[in-house]
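Q: What residues go here?
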């Protein structure tokens, strides 16, 4: 027997200018979706990804690296710690590379198998799964939850819904607290929480992120995927006839109809689909995959799992609903033939570009200098003639130590004959600190013509036996 859906459609009374007054349906409000629990291959993968992503998200801020948090984006000091790597605002190129990698990965995965990101790792999907699990434990399975929602309000109903929302809120605030823990050391944040001494910034973001989690996963759910997510709108631009998508085998399944397990399909003129509507009941966005591919489909495979269960009970072969390509369905290809066409030239090009960008970023990080140098001419001290008739220029050097140990540096200058550094050219810089040093450079008079001349500063890291260089100019005044 099919479960009865709650009726929520309403008619909207309006007056039509120039016509008789009447009542008709202007729009149909969205029905509340009660996804049914399901088990199977794709559901197991989805829950595995829930565990993996959440263990990483909630656990990573507590991991230590040396004497600090392993992953910390310290906006106050403008330093970003990722395990042994320390990045600065000057390293914006790596953020750009990561965004490009994420974009190409999205293109690649979508071209291969549609909305893999949406179905298995998108935070909206992950947190909706967690909230639905909490809801099931408190309010019961699909049929019981629907029945209880249809009942009049009672003490038991208020109690169940209250417990559900309390658990949702606690989980959401924990999520917001963890999110802020990536920007403020989470142990300090925990101490502030115990002492109730949160700063305004922390309070705002904990509640903001918590409210977003509570609202999106608890209430909006599929509305985010259907109406607010831009990915659902432009995904079709990355699909083609060899993209794997969740597909209903219409040729095998139709005509649909109920029957007994021992019925002869040939005599009844029926296909394999028993028209149980379970594929609709388990769908988190409430669509009927038998009507063809729709933009609301997030490719989670829940319908394929539940359909395989029904096929097993009926004694039919699995795969009435499955991941397949349009060409594979038309050509009745085997799995091997389908996969050979999935890895087509477009996929190989995407993969090659993606691997090249990743390799370039890894090489750049490996070859990255352990310190950074900026050279600025001292505007307050112009070129001048000093004792012994020499010409002096003054520079300010900023040396940024990107390592987590004390480093010692030595500065030399080259580019003109007789050029020398007369100030102290040694500097000690603490871990992940930056310091300024004033460098005075002298040049014998009449060595070169008046004007601007290119010179080069070389900065040597004594501890790491490495060096860097920066160009500047030496001004020779006219007599």
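A:
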């Amino acid at each position: 027997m099919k479960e009865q859906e709650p009726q929520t459609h309403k008619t909207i009374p309006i007056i039509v200018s120039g016509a008789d007054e009447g009542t008709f349906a202007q729009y149909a409000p969205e029905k509340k979706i009660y996804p049914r629990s399901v088990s199977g291959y794709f559901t197991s993968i989805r829950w595995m990804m829930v565990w993996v992503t959440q263990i990483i998200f909630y656990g990573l801020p507590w991991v230590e690296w040396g004497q600090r948090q392993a992953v910390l984006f310290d906006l106050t000091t403008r330093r970003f710690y990722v395990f042994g790597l320390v990045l600065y605002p000057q390293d914006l190129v790596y953020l750009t590379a990561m965004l490009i990698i994420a974009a190409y990965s999205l293109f690649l995965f979508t071209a291969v198998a549609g909305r893999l990101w949406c179905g298995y790792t998108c935070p909206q999907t992950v947190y909706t799964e967690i909230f639905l699990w909490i809801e099931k434990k408190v309010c019961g399975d699909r049929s019981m939850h629907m029945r209880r929602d249809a009942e009049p309000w009672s003490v038991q109903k208020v109690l169940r819904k209250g417990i559900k929302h309390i658990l949702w809120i606690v989980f959401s605030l924990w999520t917001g607290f963890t999110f802020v823990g990536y920007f403020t050391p989470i142990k300090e944040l925990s101490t502030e929480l115990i002492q109730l001494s949160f700063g305004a910034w922390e309070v705002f973001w904990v509640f903001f992120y918590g409210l977003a989690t509570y609202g999106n996963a608890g209430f909006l759910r599929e509305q985010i995927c259907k109406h607010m997510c831009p990915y659902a709108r432009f995904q079709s631009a990355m699909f083609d006839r060899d993209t794997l998508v969740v597909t209903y085998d219409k040729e095998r399944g139709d005509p649909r109809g109920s029957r007994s397990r021992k019925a002869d399909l040939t005599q009844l003129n029926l296909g394999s689909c028993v028209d149980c509507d379970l594929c609709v009941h388990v769908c988190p966005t409430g669509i009927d995959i038998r009507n063809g591919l729709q933009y609301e489909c997030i490719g989670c495979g829940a319908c394929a799992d539940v359909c395989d269960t029904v096929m097993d009970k009926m004694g039919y072969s699995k795969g009435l609903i499955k991941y397949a390509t349009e060409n594979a369905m038309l050509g009745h290809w085997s799995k091997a033939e389908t996969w050979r066409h999935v890895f087509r030239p477009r996929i190989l090009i995407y993969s090659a570009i993606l691997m090249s960008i990743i390799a370039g970023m890894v090489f750049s990080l490996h070859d990255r200098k352990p310190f950074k140098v900026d050279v600025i001419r001292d505007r307050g001290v112009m070129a001048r003639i000093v004792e012994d008739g020499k010409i002096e220029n003054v520079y300010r050097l900023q040396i940024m130590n990107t390592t987590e140990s004390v480093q010692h540096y030595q500065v030399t200058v080259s580019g003109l004959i007789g050029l020398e550094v007369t100030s102290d050219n040694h500097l000690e810089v603490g871990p992940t600190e930056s310091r300024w040093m004033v460098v005075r450079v002298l040049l014998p008079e009449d060595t070169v013509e008046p004007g601007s001349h290119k010179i080069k500063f070389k900065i040597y890291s004594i501890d790491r036996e490495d060096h860097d260089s920066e160009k500047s100019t030496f001004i020779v005044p006219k007599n």
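A: Context that may help when evaluating the design: The first strand starts at residue 12 and ends at 14. The mean pLDDT is 88.
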